[in-house]
Design a protein that fits this description.
Blueprint lengths: L5 E4 L9 H7 L4 E4 L10 H4 L4 E4 L6 H6 L5 E4 L9 H6 L4 E2 L6 H16 L2 H9 L20 E5 L3 H11 L4 E5 L7 H5 L2 E2 L2 H7 L2 E4 L13 H5 L5 E5 L8 H9 L3 E6 L12 H7 L9 E3 L8 H19 L11
Parallel strand pairs: 1-2, 1-3, 3-4, 4-5, 6-7, 6-9, 7-8, 9-10, 10-11, 11-12
This protein binds nicotinamide-adenine-dinucleotide.
Nicotinamide-adenine-dinucleotide binds next to α7.
């Protein structure tokens, strides 16, 4: 009897019945849900049976990868692949794929929503009207400044960074970017300004982060980086929490060098409740009140995007089980 391929998938998935995945893989595949807790680590005993792995937020570390005996592919159900030790997988000759395109528009929309919310003073306005004290005060958010004509700095002009750039142009914003890895000429086709990092930091009125999290970008936005920014800059991060040093951001916010910040991602998720910035914000301390927005790593989400992600990830696994090359490989 021929071996029925075994595919392990993360628990804590959006659909507890894995309907799309089962339909896409077909009846000749044994789809099993990992027993390890969501956001935990894949169990070695399960790993050794896997022909393919689909992970959402379960970490596939070097220990699990060491146990893989006949795994042909690891797919990350999402864009960022920092949940998988991609180098350990490459050393074993196992491709790691992601689904790079299911939420490009959603994350770009969310980024603009966050940027507009902090620059238009929404947290303060909403709070003032909600208090129900009869306040109907256009000045409740303090001084606000015109967006048109200001400079938006984008760090990382990939899929999402580009989608943000195109949206921002509709607001009459001057869009500049820093990305040492994009091909020359991208700035011309998109009508953007390409700058060196220091120049970008010196010119940006708004800054948004769109790099992957890797050894080069981890804590890239630290106190030295923030010190190079214009006073009163607005900062948005929908990339990965680890790109930004939250202690350095707290200091910059306290000192007023950063006017306001909006974060969809945190260094650990769910975030450590002892994190000073979050603690002060949750306590409604004056210095940070209305100057911070935090959303729960939700920029990717839309009903349509979720379906795209699951269908595309499943199709990638099916193709590899059928002997076709993996698409969107990130580690080879
Ligand atoms: P992408 O690979 O298309 O683009 C990343 C860009 O960053 C590339 O152009 C690359 O050249 C550039 N880059 C790499 N290192 C850099 C550096 N040191 N300095 C400047 N630029 C650098 O990725 P993407 O699909 O646009 O995703 C961007 C980020 O968004 C990733 O971190 C991803 O994990 C994150 N993301 C978040 C959510 C969410 O829900 N918040 C959803 C999807 C993706």
């Amino acid at each position: 009897m021929s071996h029925k391929p075994v595919v392990y998938i993360s628990p804590g998935h959006m659909d507890p019945y894995y309907t799309l995945e089962k339909a896409g893989l077909g009846p000749d595949v044994d789809l099993r849900v990992m027993q390890s807790p969501d956001r935990g680590y894949m169990d070695g005993a399960e790993a050794c049976q896997a022909d393919a792995i689909m992970t959402w937020r379960t970490r596939i570390d070097a220990k699990a990868i060491d146990q893989l005996e006949h795994c042909k592919l690891i797919v990350r159900l999402g864009v960022g692949y920092d949940f998988v030790d991609v180098e350990a997988a490459a050393r074993k000759g196992i491709p790691v794929s992601n689904v790079p395109d299911y939420c490009t528009n959603e994350v770009a929309d969310h980024t603009l929503a966050l940027l507009l919310a902090i620059t238009r003073g929404l947290p303060a306005y909403i709070d003032s009207v909600k208090q129900g004290t009869g306040q109907w005060e256009w000045s409740a958010a303090g001084s606000l400044y015109r967006m048109t004509g200001k400079t938006l700095g984008i760090i990382g002009l990939g899929r999402i960074g580009t989608a943000v750039a195109l949206r921002a142009k509709a607001f009459g914003v001057d869009v500049a970017f820093y990305d040492p890895y994009t091909r020359d000429g991208m700035e011309r086709s998109l009508g953007l300004r390409r700058l060196g990092l220091d120049d970008l930091l010196a010119q940006a009125d708004f800054l948004t982060l769109h790099t992957p999290l890797n050894d080069e970008t981890r804590a890239m936005v630290n106190s030295t980086f923030l010190a190079k920014l214009k006073n009163g800059v607005y900062l948005v991060n929908t990339s990965r929490g680890g790109v930004l040093d939250s202690t350095a951001l707290e200091v910059a916010l306290r000192e007023g060098r950063v006017a306001a910040a909006a974060l969809d991602v945190m260094p650990t998720e769910p975030p450590d409740s002892e994190l000073a910035l979050l603690k002060a914000w949750r306590a409604g301390e004056d210095w940070v009140k209305h100057r911070l927005i935090v959303t729960p790593h939700s920029a990717f989400y839309s009903e349509e995007g979720e379906i795209d992600m699951r269908v595309k990830a499943t199709a990638t696994v099916r193709e590899v089980l059928d002997g076709l090359p993996a698409r969107n490989v990130v580690n080879m």
